[in-house]
Amino acid sequence: MSDTRRRVKVYTLNEDRQWDDRGTGHVSSTYVEELKGMSLLVRAESDGSLLLESKINPNTAYQKQQDTLIVWSEAENYDLALSFQEKAGCDEIWEKICQVQGKDPSVEVTQDLIDESEEERFEEMPETSHLIDLPTCELNKLEEIADLITSVLSSPIRREKLALALENEGYIKKLLQLFRACENLENTEGLHHLYEIIRGILFLNKATLFEVMFSDECIMDVVGCLEYDPALAQPKRHREFLTKTAKFKEVIPITDSELRQKIHQTYRVQYIQDIILPTPSVFEENFLSTLTSFIFFNKVEIVSMLQEDEKFLSEVFAQLTDEATDDDKRRELVNFFKEFCAFSQTLQPQNRDAFFKTLAKLGILPALEIVMGMDDLQVRSAATDIFSYLVEFSPSMVREFVMQEAQQSDDDILLINVVIEQMICDTDPELGGAVQLMGLLRTLIDPENMLATTNKTEKSEFLNFFYNHCMHVLTAPLLTNTSEDKCEKDFLKSKKYYRYNSFLCAPSHSYSHPHTPNYQDNIVGSNKNNTICPDNYQTAQLLALILELLTFCVEHHTYHIKNYIMNKDLLRRVLVLMNSKHTFLALCALRFMRRIIGLKDEFYNRYITKGNLFEPVINALLDNGTRYNLLNSAVIELFEFIRVEDIKSLTAHIVENFYKALESIEYVQTFKGLKTKYEQEKDRQNQKLNSVPSILRSNRFRRDAKALEEDEEMWFNEDEEEEGKAVVAPVEKSKPEDDFPDSYEKFMETKKAKESEDKENLPKRTSPGGFKFTFSHSASAANGTNSTNSKAVVAQTPPASSNGSSSKTTNLAASVPATKGSLVGLVDYPDDEEEDEEEETSPRKRPRLGS
Asked: Full-prediction pTM beyond 0.70?
């Protein structure tokens, strides 16, 4: 036999009874030496690899369906199908198969599907007696016909024979004529029999019968028969729904009659499968596998035909983006695309890939940008669904579009900013749409699905774009609700602010910066009337969504989000929400801080201690009182993490500034453990300081504190400017000195020596940074008084700064308590002095604090 090459798709049936596309190639029938027989070979058209090698077995049952399909089983649970591009190719391969098996090519099935017992029983049956004799198609024979069809369903070979008999005699059309007669005569018994007959024919699972039953001529009568279920008191009105209620809308007239017919047929057959037919039992689940395949291949064909008709799709896009298009028409166009995209989800990956590439080429993203900004809620909702399909298909395609768009458009009309606006402006009380959009934004900014190629790094390019053009829009509601200013100045200039500010709660008080003179009067939590948190539930939900996205950024973006947090003082704004009456919002704010601390980055730690940002967290813990709830557990876990991970700068800051307020909490050992670690570190550093040779403690090494801070800030800023790299953490007190460059090591040793030599001449500091820590219900928390001479103190920074900065030994020296015969620390806190005096007179105090 000569080789015959035809273009085909290879499909296999998976465990869920769905067809998986294995690729496109060219089929041939040829003799294969290894298989010792004629075989079907399919080689991929892309690279020539072998997609299929299947011997044409003389006993295998091959089925020809819909003129372009050949289906067969090679094993018990391994079904194969070849879908031909042309009918001529299918006919040619079918002839080769029939030739090998000695069959007439006019048959649709080459072998009877039989089990072993029936094979033995029918082995000697003459060829002429393969058909079942059907009763004459008359009203008085309906019961007999129904019994016959029901009886053959359990036998594969009898099902095959019955299917052939029904097809050869044109029996189905005769049955449907009887149906119309029974309806006219109101013959209920006959209609019940016809329901059983038509249902049984569907369960024969034969594509050739489906083609007759689902033709335009017959399908509505088939639906009519299925209305008369004997189990129902009254018949269903499926035909009325399909003809009157269900309307087929052509947003653009479809000129291809074959395409229109295929769409109608697919909808009706899907309706029969999903609505009319009862859910099959375990024993019947395979009865309708061919019906599923019929629908599947119809859908593949419809999508292919629409894709190929570029004139049709171009016209749809043109009308969608045309300003002259009226609202009703635009709504229909958007709904068409939504259905089109939903339809594509049933396709295999290769087909879906081609589908979305076609839409992208025609301009789906610019069109979405226009319709997502419209006032019509239904249009926006449909556009959001389409956008979700695109993001799930290819986040990179969407990212590439918005970055190109940024070069030509203002920030206000960028697609991602339009999406953020829709999230912020969602009118649904439960913010259902906002949750969906937030998930899409997270997909777009997730570095895990960003490509890194030789010439282009998508991650750095897109994140630079996002933080420069979009982040201010995303954080605007958060900044608006946590600042006395109604909004950031830049955002006030944006049109969007006026759009959604109407439902955002206006703040009633500011959360002052710690360096302002009246900071002690503005502590959140010291007075409940000071709270500026929104009490509107919808606003609180929105802020929780934004915080969730920002928390994701902290975990995955490192460098970009770090710069943003520090430049905007974002954590301070977020922690204002710790005072919200909505506990879920307070927990979101706490989770944001917990993720930052979880990074164990000394730059973040210094930012937290310098700004005294533990204060609102501790206020929330104390205001929560003795209640054992999620907020209590989350705050305790935060401090327990610091203790277990031994983050020294944060431990020192917490103990020095807040221990008196926290020492009464004894139901967990977290705070006593922090005190113990703090004292152990002080002892270690004291011993280290005393071991420094006296020659190094010379005045000639001294530099003033201001110059030292400027050097550290310069080092800090230089590290932040390295794009795309992990920021180098400053020297931690717990790390050995030889882990860092020699020059920095010498610098720190010199600094330590000169300060320890001259510290006896320094005036004592009587107040930690000149701030007063106030609690609404704990007078014992006030642990210091304002100092009149604090500005003259050398190395004048708040205590948080000295503990959290990048210097290694100076800051530790600042925390060493004054004892007899030892050097005086650079910064002497009254609390430390008091504790040390008490230790000298009352040794019992130490076990209580350190245990």
From this structure: no
